[in-house]
């Protein structure tokens, strides 16, 4: 970075505003492009192995434009794959990616800790208990396949609530206590889940798949449930982005700058709990997105949350779309849990960026 | 805006940290909040910011209690400059100062406005930080960082600046840079309340000093009124002498700390000195348990002032006058009562040549006479060799000579053992 002294007449205000606009425009373009390209990605192609038989780019175009009658060999199945499987799946990936990345950004600011992620207050381990219980006690027989997400969502929220109560003393939230309570709770609940897996044996293949995070078997219903929560939650956090900047300087300074840290902490915890619990309930524990995307975006756009929150939302969404696109084609016709892909791709990329930045001598 | 601290009591887990503080801060005042570590200064600042809720009493702004205000409202009246700020992120100086505009944000959606940008620019120009507006806060020097934080406080557009030891991590140039800036801001009409540790810095810059001790307001007034040896001894538990800073005439406290702790044995020693040569010798003698006296000194001689501050007997002469017969006689009497006479390396002129004659008398009546640094007499003999001749005569007649203060004490200790 240049270390030149700014001439007296140069006010960074307009430059910052312009840079923000350009960056956001760039990220939105990348996001839309990702959505569009990934519609063509799948087992049947056109980008993909083409099993059982390949479909062409033109056909997908025409299906998207509602002109499938142009194709004599057209079958209803292809249209269903595009409209009922691929598109909702891509949108769900975008929503989950956005939600986890924004929640992770907020958590890192709240705990002033680079290791924080959306699961740090026990959401994932709480949800895992619910998901495991769903299979174990036979709720599925009563509630059908919705048992797992419903139970996971409930246990996730209960866990967060318990951790939240443990971290609150006389109406004040102590983030250090909150952090340790979350870690201890996660260890405890993790042991419970392991216990259940140990006794349940074979039938827990599905649970393992869930624990690794997966976007299979989604429909428009999930998209419609998730969209308001994820977009709304991210938007509320964005509204408090300047306060999050102040919170990075410590709670006392945040208070002195008028950011009302107690209210801010509550809002962040409520929003991240809702977003994360919902994401985990439907798609399992997709790790890494909520930890690494905020860091990658911080390296690209800087620490100002005014920019960082929207960048994380778009970056997280795009990242998970691509990770899912890879997961459903790489070992076609079956698909790999997307959590494996996120960790495999995101880790090295992040390390590369980190080294690049340090080599350039940029202060963290 | 008048700030009234009314009967303020605050306790951490039952332990009272502030006990019934009453203090009024006038608009435009520069108040130094002082006291030993743990006296409650920072807690008082935190109560003023409504960060801590007092157990009893209140902070009133123009008779309105502060706890009725919202965080953002308080942040538009008070801005805080902490001791230091974290640097484990990469905010630029500009972004740091922009945070001062948070309490003025009216629309969460639209973000920073043109008015915010103008306020940030003028605050950064005022604090001379505009030249590194785009630099990362973490790469700035301690003084530069503190100026950026003051710029952030100014961007809040407050009525009062609250500072918690703003100079504590700065070198001497940085300290004065910050204090000068604060004074300039104060002259522009900003009320300033600063927790400070350096008594001399506070005396130089503050209109009023509030001295806290064990959660109580122990003294309040101008530096001249508050910084006296009694207050300092009572509150800080340290002996000081109080002088005036020669450049500003602000009160200046000089600590009197002993490196030697010796029992008081009261052996009488008379010190013939002048021109600031006697002070350290007298202090050493006191520390080692002797009972020193001194003379003949002109009033206004710096040794006279030191001896006075140390409360030892002085034979004195009026300013700039020759030692009179009367004073000389008294001096000889004092010598008769002493066991040892010390001649320091003071400059000798026609006015005080009698003091050397007094040493001669001491030797004649059998006292131990010790001469400090007789080798340097050539530089300080202003009576064309007469002083030198007298000193040589003294040495021949059995006076001892030592090169420096440490050697003097060794010699005295050996003599005491015998």
> Whole-number average pLDDT of chain A?
85
Sheet/helix structural class of chain A: mainly alpha
CATH architecture of chain A: Orthogonal Bundle
Query: What's the N-to-C terminus distance of chain B?
Result: 70 Å
Main-sheet strand order of chain A equals 1-2
CATH topology of chain A: ABC transporter involved in vitamin B12 uptake, BtuC
Beta fraction of chain B: 15-25%
Query: Number of DSSP helices of chain A?
Result: 15
**How many domains would you count in the coordinates of chain A?**
1
Any idea what the shape of chain A is? globular
| Span of the ends, CA to CA of chain A | 13 Å
Query: What CATH first level of chain A would be assigned?
Result: Mainly Alpha
Under CATH, the homologous superfamily of the largest domain in chain B reads P-loop containing nucleotide triphosphate hydrolases
**What integer value in Å does the Rg of chain B equal?**
29 Å
Largest interface: A-B, 32 and 46 residues
Oligomer: heterodimer
Percent of residues in helices of chain A:
over 70%
Question: How many β strands of chain B by DSSP?
Answer: 18
Poorly predicted segments of chain A: none
CATH homologous superfamily title of chain A: ABC transporter involved in vitamin B12 uptake, BtuC
Description:
The complex is a heterodimer of chains A (364) and B (418). With 364 residues, chain A is mainly alpha-helical. Chain A has a single domain, classed as ABC transporter involved in vitamin B12 uptake, BtuC. In chain A, 71% of the residues lie in helices and 1% in strands. Chain A has a two-stranded antiparallel ribbon. Chain A is globular and about 70 Å long. The model of chain A has no long low-confidence stretch (mean pLDDT 85). The termini of chain B are far apart. Chain B has helices at residues 41-48, 71-77, 93-98, 114-126, 142-155, 172-187, 199-205, 223-226, 229-236, 279-287, 302-309, 325-337, 353-364, 377-380, 386-396, 405-417; strands spanning 3-12, 15-25, 30-34, 56-61, 64-65, 78-81, 160-164, 191-195, 208-213, 216-221, 240-244, 251-255, 268-272, 291-298, 314-317, 340-343, 368-372, 400-402. In chain B, helix 4 (114-126) crosses helix 5. Chain B is elongated, with a radius of gyration of 29 Å. In chain B, strand 7 (160-164), helix 6 and strand 8 form a beta-alpha-beta unit. Chain B has two domains: 3-248, 3-Layer(aba) Sandwich (Rossmann fold), CATH 3.40.50; 268-417, Ribokinase (UDP-N-acetylmuramoyl-L-alanine:D-glutamate ligase, 3-Layer(aba) Sandwich). Chain B has 16 helices and 18 strands. In chain B, the strands form four sheets. In chain B, strands 6-7-8-3-9-10 form a six-stranded mixed beta sheet, with helices on both faces. In chain B, strands 15-14-13-16-17-18 form a six-stranded parallel beta sheet, with helices on both faces. Chain B has a four-stranded antiparallel beta sheet with strand order 2-1-4-5, with helices on one face. The chains are: A mainly alpha (364), B alpha/beta (418). The interface between A and B is large, with 32 and 46 residues.
């Amino acid at each position: 970075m240049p270390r030149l002294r700014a001439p007296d007449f140069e006010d960074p205000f307009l430059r910052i505003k312009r840079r923000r606009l350009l960056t956001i425009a760039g990220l939105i373009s990348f996001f839309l492009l990702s959505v569009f390209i990934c519609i063509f990605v799948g087992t049947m192609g056109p980008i993909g192995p083409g099993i059982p038989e390949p479909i062409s780019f033109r056909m997908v175009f025409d299906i998207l434009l509602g002109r499938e009658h142009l194709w004599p060999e057209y079958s209803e199945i292809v249209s269903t794959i595009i409209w009922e499987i691929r598109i909702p799946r891509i949108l769900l990936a975008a929503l989950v990616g956005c939600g986890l990345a924004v929640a992770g950004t907020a958590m890192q600011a709240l705990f002033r800790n680079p290791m924080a992620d959306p699961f740090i207050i026990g959401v994932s381990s709480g949800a895992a208990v619910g998901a495991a219980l769903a299979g174990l006690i036979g709720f599925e027989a009563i509630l059908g396949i919705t048992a797992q997400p419903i139970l996971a969502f409930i246990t996730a929220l209960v866990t967060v609530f318990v951790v939240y109560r443990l971290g609150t003393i006389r109406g004040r939230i102590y983030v250090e206590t909150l952090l340790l309570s979350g870690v201890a709770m996660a260890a405890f609940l993790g042991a419970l889940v392991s216990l259940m897996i140990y006794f349940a044996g074979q039938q827990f293949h599905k649970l393992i798949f869930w624990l690794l995070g997966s976007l299979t078997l989604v429909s428009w219903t999930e998209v419609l449930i998730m969209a308001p929560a994820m977009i709304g939650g991210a938007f509320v956090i964005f509204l408090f982005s300047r306060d999050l900047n102040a919170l990075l300087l410590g709670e006392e300074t945040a208070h002195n700058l008028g950011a009302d840290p107690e209210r801010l902490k509550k809002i962040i915890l409520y929003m991240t709990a809702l977003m994360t619990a919902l994401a985990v309930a439907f798609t399992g524990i997709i790790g890494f997105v909520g930890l690494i995307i905020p860091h990658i975006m911080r390296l690209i756009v800087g620490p100002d949350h005014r920019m960082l929150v929207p960048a994380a939302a778009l970056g997280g969404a795009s990242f998970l779309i691509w990770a899912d696109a890879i997961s459903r084609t790489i070992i076609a016709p079956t698909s790999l849990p997307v959590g494996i892909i996120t960790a495999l791709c995101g880790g090295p990329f992040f390390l590369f960026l980190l080294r690049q930045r340090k080599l350039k001598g940029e202060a963290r | 805006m008048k700030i009234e601290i009314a009967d303020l009591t605050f306790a951490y887990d039952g332990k009272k940290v502030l006990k019934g503080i009453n203090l009024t801060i006038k608009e435009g005042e520069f108040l130094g909040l002082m006291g030993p570590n743990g006296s409650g200064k920072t807690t008082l600042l935190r109560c003023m910011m409504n960060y801590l809720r007092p157990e009893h009493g209140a902070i009133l702004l123009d008779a309105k209690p502060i706890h009725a205000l919202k965080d953002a409202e308080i942040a538009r009246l008070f801005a805080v400059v902490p001791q230091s700020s974290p640097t484990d992120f990469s905010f630029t100086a500009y972004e740091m100062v922009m945070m001062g505009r948070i309490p003025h944000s009216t629309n969460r959606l639209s973000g920073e406005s043109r008015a915010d940008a103008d306020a940030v620019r003028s605050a950064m120009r005022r604090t001379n930080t505009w030249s590194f507006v785009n630099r990362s806060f973490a790469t700035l020097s301690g003084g530069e960082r503190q100026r950026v934080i003051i710029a952030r406080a100014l961007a809040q557009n407050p009525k009062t600046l609250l500072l918690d030891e703003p100079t504590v991590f700065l070198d001497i140039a940085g300290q004065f840079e910050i204090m000068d800036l604060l004074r300039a801001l104060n002259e522009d009409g900003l009320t300033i309340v600063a927790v400070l540790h350096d008594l001399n810095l506070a005396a130089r810059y503050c209109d009023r000093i509030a001295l806290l001790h064990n959660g109580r307001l122990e003294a309040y007034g101008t530096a001249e009124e508050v910084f006296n040896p009694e207050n300092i001894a009572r509150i800080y538990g340290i002996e000081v002498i109080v002088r005036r800073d020669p450049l500003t005439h602000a009160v200046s406290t000089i600590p009197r700390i002993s490196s030697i702790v010796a029992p008081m044995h009261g052996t009488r020693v008379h010190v013939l000195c002048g021109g600031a040569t006697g002070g350290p010798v007298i202090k050493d003698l006191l520390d080692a348990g002797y009972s020193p006296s001194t003379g003949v000194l002109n009033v206004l001689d710096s040794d006279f002032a030191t001896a006075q501050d140390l409360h030892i007997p002085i034979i004195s002469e009026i300013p700039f006058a020759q030692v009179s017969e009367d004073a000389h006689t008294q001096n000889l009497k004092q010598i008769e009562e002493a066991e040892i006479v010390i001649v320091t390396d003071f400059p000798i002129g026609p006015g005080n040549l009698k003091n050397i004659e007094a040493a001669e008398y001491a030797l004649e009546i059998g006292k131990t006479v010790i001469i400090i640094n007789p080798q340097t007499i050539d530089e300080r003999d202003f009576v064309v060799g007469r002083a030198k001749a007298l000193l040589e005569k003294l040495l021949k007649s059995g006076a001892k000579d030592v090169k420096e203060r440490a050697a003097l004490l060794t010699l005295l200790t050996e003599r005491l053992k015998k």
